[in-house]
Structure formats: C-alpha cells, structure tokens
Design goal:
Elements: E1 6-12, E2 19-20, E3 50-61, E4 68-69, E5 72-73, H1 87-94, H2 99-106, H3 112-126, E6 135-141, H4 144-154, E7 158-161, E8 171-176, E9 181-191, E10 201-211, E11 217-225, H5 233-255, E12 262-270, H6 282-286, E13 295-297, H7 298-305, E14 316-318, E15 323-325, E16 328-333, E17 343-351, E18 358-365, E19 368-376, E20 397-402
Parallel strand pairs: 3-6, 11-12
Antiparallel strand pairs: 1-9, 2-7, 3-20, 4-5, 6-8, 7-8, 9-10, 10-11, 12-16, 13-16, 14-15, 17-20, 18-19
Helix pairs in contact: 1-2, 3-4
Length: about 400
Amino acid sequence: MSGLKNWVSTGFLLLSVVYCLGGCGAKNQDPSPPLNPFGETTPGFSEESNLYVMSYNLHNLFDTQHDIEEGVDKNDIEFLPFSFPDKVKKCDQMNSGNSYYADMCKKTDWTAEKLNYKLGVIRKVVLHKERIPDILGTVEIENRNVAQMLADRIGYKTFVMTKGPDKRGIDVALFYNPDKLELIEETHIAMRAPEYSGKPTRDSLLVHFQLKDKPGQVLAVSLNHWPSQGNSDESRTEVAKVVMEEVASKREKYLLESWVKDYHFIMMGDFNTVRDDRPHPFNDVVLNGQWGTPVSDIETLRNAEFPNHEDPAGSYFYRPRADWNKLDRFFVSQSLVDKKGTDIMVDSFHIVHEDFMMRDFEIRDNGRVIKTIKIPNGFRHEKNRLEDMGVSDHLPIEVKIGY
C-alpha cells in the first residue's frame, strides 16, 4: 500500500508476552513502593454477565528511570528527577532547537513521590465505579516497568503492551480480566514507512480473546494511538488503513476455524482525529464498509438513541479554539450491535467526567468572560505541589458489552 512496509509480529497463546503480577521477571526499578494517596480499598472485578471496557489516555505516565533501547537514549529526560546526572545538559541536547520543551524539561523534578501520586490519580479515575474494568486500554504509557506499577495499583494480574519507535518511549498497554477473557494471540502492528510525515509512528496493538463464558465467541481488541495533529491528515489515514486491513485479515482467518461461532471486534484509543481532517481516517477508512462487516461508532449510536445524556461534547478540549474534540473513540463490528446475544449496551457509553477530573475554563469574547465551563484538568508534571498537578488532558470513555 503506497510502498508501505507493515511489519506485524504475532505471538500465540503459549508464546505471547503476557506481563503478570510481580512483573514476570521484570524488575521494578523505582525506589519507592506504590503509595495510596487516596486511602481507598481496592474493589474487585464484577461477576456480572458483561464486560466493562474503558479507554484512557494517561497523559504521560513515565517512571523515574532513564530508558536506553538498542543503544539509543530515549527522550524521557523531562521525566527524571533533578538528581539524574547532567539532567540540565541533556535537556538541552535532547530538545535542541525547541526552547519551550528544553525549559519545561529543566524545571521538572519528576520524583518517585510525584509518580506515586499520578498512579493514585489514575487509579481513582479507573475505579470511579468501584469496579475494575474487564478491559482497560491505555495510551501514553512509557514502559513495562511503569505499566506493572499501574497494574499493581489497580488490581490487574495480566496485561500486554507494545514497544514501539516513539522517541520519548511512550506506548500502549492493554490490561484485562483473565477470569472472563482467555488470551488467544496478540499482534503488534508497527508503522515504519515514510508516509507518516517522514518518520515512524506508534505501534498499534491487536489482541484476540475467547469469552470464557461463551464458547466459540472471539473478541478482538484493537488499541491505538495515532499520529498527532502535528502530523498530516494523510498519516492518520495510512495508519487507519493498516489497522483495518489487519483486523479484516484476522476476521477472515478466524471465521474459517470450525470452533469459532462469532467474531467481534472493538477498536479503542486516542485516534487524534478531528472533524476537519481531509482525507478523514474515520469516514474514508474505518467506516467505509470495506472490511467484511459494517463498523459503528458507539458514541454516535448512543447520542442518536439517548440524546439527553449529560456527557461533555468530547473527550479532549482544545483551549486555543475553545473547542471540544472527540479524539477517544470506540468502534465496533456489526456483530456487537445486531442484538443477537453479545452486544454493546449502548446506554452504558459515557465520557467519564467526575468533579475531581475537571477544572473551570473561562470562555471570553473581546476580553469579557461570557461563560465558564468545566474542562479536563490536565496533568502538570512540572508542578512541585501534588495538589497542583491535575489528572489528565483527556477524559476516559467507557462502555459495557453484554452477553
């Protein structure tokens, strides 16, 4: 596809890299044990006959250690403590030509205390229903080390994670409930071609499960963090094509297996796609009807069927334009909305916006405040007081799959 070289690595159940409670041999590098700044008890998974699914951009979840991969320094210097040797010098080196990021790096003292606080904030968001999501898709998470810390804090025993080419080291990680979901295989979809604004972009993750209570029911979960709005619209369209081609290929393969009765898929993550994108990754690719099954956007279905909801107009607020964007989405196959047994509970879709996650924002006209609204309280890692640090610039989305 346009010279695109799509490298896909697949590991089946016995060969999959599954990260478990205790790290499966991975070392916990940070010196301090996890703290619980909110003093909450940990709920368990629900035994209800549904899957509770959440997708959340964690807004820069980094540990306090410097990563070097294949002899190359990752640009995680901003998220290191002042005690890291030559931090100021390395801030300038790694952010050459960008004084804003260099200055932000130099004034950020990313300590174990701050990390523990951030883990606690994420935990509070994820557990806002007093129930651990059966599937939690996360983006902007640095590595296995900090993913294991998050798993321990929330109560997960298992997760799978990419290891992509992002220069800062951020990847995607999928946490899941092994009591309801049996891992079949995971596929890492890597984007290495020059179509993505001349540079590689973050890997996507495609994980296949069998529903333990529903023999023959396969659920594919696609977790994504597409190129930012700083890249071309074409770059996101190319990524969309690669992901959808892989999903369609896997669907065709599984439906040939005699034990498979139904194949369902759900796509989630931060797609970084806005209304004005041209070409449009959703309309021109994901929803174009060329993938063997119709695909639906869950929020669109919810808004049509239940218009009187109280959710914000999007999951991300772009302050320069005072505009809500729907960067975080759930897309699902027709089999999850056909009302034949395993289906999305459309009215369960929500953009999570608890009070502690929000802050006031003044909308002005010629300098005069005309309205004050609530927007996401983005995480400010450079702050020194924990109470000033915030939560995330994205709001998570959630939905239930009934069966």
